[in-house]
Amino acid sequence: MSWVGVILVSTFASNALLSYGLGACDAARGGRHGSLRTGIALLASTFVAGILLWIISSLVLKPLGLRGFEIIALALVVVPVMRYVSSFLAQKVGAAGEGLFMRVDEVSLSCVVFGIALIVTRQGFGPVEVILASLSSVAGYSAATGLLGAINARLELSDIPAPLKGGPGILISAALVSMAFSVLDVDFIARMVG
Fold this sequence. Notes:
- The protein is mainly α.
- It contains 9 helices and no strands.
- The termini are close together.
């Protein structure tokens, strides 16, 4: 698949939130922290997790026939390495970058980081495609959360029946957006861009 295909598949067809339901946890959405800091932390975490898991999977697990142990490798090797490095860098950088690296430490346990790293690794990409897919997946996740946030804000201002206000309206909207994204499947994009 071409790099354009990898980017489109990772952004739309394999969307972490809409296709797999990942990212509903507070750690990935920013919470009380700034959204820019969370976005940068999410980009850094998925990038590092994707590359580390690809290295472990292709150099250790695949040759030994232990591909099913990717989740364990992610939990026992990749996440502790990411947390150690972010804590180390937070101490060395000082006050200016400490908040960002502490946010990376928090986001590294996010279900989005776990899911994107596993999705990207299992698609059989090389190292460059893993990088493109990781970064594109974060872009797709950010676009989906932004779109659902805008729909939620619009629903709050709309005159809709009381039983559909709040959670039910958001779930119906998420289902419709998810159906719209599901039109762009991997085969369709592969035929479209090669």
